[in-house]
Amino acid sequence: MISQRPHISPYRAVGQNGKVNTTSDAPGWDAIDAAMAALYPGIAPVYQAYSPGLGLGSGLQGCSAYPVRGFWHYVSYGLTELWVKRADSNPDWSGWGYEFTMRVARPDVYAPPPQWPYTLLERLARVVHGKGLILGAGHRMDVGEPITGGTPPTTLTALAFAADPLLPTRRTEHGNVEFLQIVGITRADLAEMHDTSTAYVLAARAAAGDPLWITDPRI
Question: Which of 76, 108, 115, 131 is 20 to 30 A from 96 (CA-CA)?
Answer without folding.
Answer: 115
